[in-house]
Amino acid sequence: MTAARTVTSAVRLLETLPALFRSDPRVDVVFAFDPGSAFGDGVLDLLHAAGARVMPWGQLSRTACDLVVSASENIDLTGVDCPVLVLPHGVGFHKLVPDARGTGRRLSGVMDDPRAWHAVSHPDQIRQLAEHHPALAERTFLIGDPCHDRLLASRMLRTRYREALGLREGRKLVLVSSTWGEQSLLGTDPLLPQRLLGELPLDEYRVAAVLHPNIWSAHGTWQVRAVEAAALDSGLLLIPPHRGWQAALLAADAVIGDHGSVTFYGAAVGTPLLLAAFGEESVPGTPMAELGRITPRLDPHAPFAAQLERAVAEHDAERITKVAGEAFAEPGRSLEQLRSALYELMKLPEPVAAGAPPLHRWPVPEAGPGEVTAMWVRTSGADRDVTVRRWPAAAGGDQDEGDGDAEFGHLSCDEEEQDLRQLASASVITSRVRAGSADAAVGRARRLLDELPGSLLAAVPVAGGSVVLFRNGRAVESTATDPSLAGAVVYARFRARRPLTGTVTLRVGRHEEDLTLREHRATEG
């Protein structure tokens, strides 16, 4: 019997148990959903999507079972007459939470019940139990951490994960990680993702967010997306609460986090960290508390890019991973040791013929790159150079018009941009629909300009490049395949009174290429 109470605990069970009971017809796994949590929204959907057999909670006390497995310490065990194995749903016992019995705060993850056994990931956690709950210290199994083991096994897929998240060569991924509660990252600064996107150039950075499942359950998907609407419009990659965060963590170049387990796992795999929040609910003397002591803080009032660059340059991977390693014993053996504990409690011989439980790598994330359809573009350059930097307009962007003869700013919008205010203000309008010929591109660009009289020019992609059309009818063919970049280069050359023909070196992020510009002449007939 497995007992699920929250999305967090349900996900941990669904991730862990399949490898442990595979190919053993002697074990019948049934899920029971405890509806008593404020964070239970979405649990039944997860279980049904996984094809699990779900029993009504009231039936549990009338069901003969040999073992109850839970990743939540708060389940109602009324009528249960068998051992209970409590799996961690995070990293160890590092957090103090309010005690529902009204006796102050308690260690998160601890079930104070004579039927309970605890799976722990490091011997220090046994000593911690001996200090806080002496009667429980002898009812533990040292297994390690299955999530950590799978992260280590999945590191070789980093390039594949980055490709799936739309990260071109040279583009950095910043992962924002928030646990739940008032002291969490989002609890203290819910609009931090939007502000990050407004400062970090679009072609140099992507921003993804991993939010604790309790945030989704307590507030609902609609509310989460409403609060982060501007960030989502600016390209924020919002990782679903039930899968994908592990791959995003391994793909990340830096993590901005708090005292949640995802931040700690980031430290364990060697990712540079900045802390935007760190709650006092962290238990003193734990590896999490030590991580909070030695990790640099994010200054919300200082430029973000410079802080990220400094965090990466000064990251002491050996020191950080050593602290994180104090939470994980015997890496690589967790599933094997957890299976032994389960079968010992069931008083059943392990299935020797099945071999060791397989350690599967984390799947490639399903979430694709977010579309940004309105960008503030800043161009600068000399005679034959144009440097382009872009920011999402919805996040605020760098809306500086420029202050030199060759430095300009403009708003560029795709025709599919939903905010009509942005469209009406855009100097450059683009289309992602590739035209069949240069003449057809001119026709499409003309229709766009007719529909949006406030725009100076429109850019439409064609095979091998783009066509840029001015409102006065002048058309320029560019070998830039991204119409926004083609429009930016032509706009910059026009504003600087430079020739709109010849070879121009485009620099955007770490990418550099030579573009050819030439006057378009309509095909006769």
Describe the structure.
The protein starts with a strand and ends in a 6-residue tail after the last strand. It is 32% helix and 21% strand. The chain has 525 residues and is of the alpha/beta class. The chain is elongated. A hairpin with a 2-residue loop joins strand 22 and strand 23 (511-519). It has a 9-stranded mixed barrel. Strands 3-2-1-4-5-8-9 form a 7-stranded parallel β-sheet.
DSSP E strands, number: 23
Residue runs with pLDDT of under 50 for 5 or more positions: none
Determine the strand fraction and express it as a percent band: 15-25%
Average pLDDT taken over every residue: 91
Q: Number of helix segments?
A: 19
Largest sheet: 9 strands, mixed, barrel
Q: What's the helical proportion of residues? A: 25-40%
Note the overall shape. elongated
Structural class: alpha/beta
Strand arrangement in the largest pleated sheet:
15-16-22-23-21-20-19-18-17
Our Rg estimate from Cα atoms comes to: 27 Å
What is the terminal separation in angstroms?
76 Å
Quaternary structure classification: single chain
List keywords for this structure.
23 strands; alpha/beta; 525 residues; nine-stranded mixed beta barrel; single chain; seven-stranded parallel beta sheet; elongated
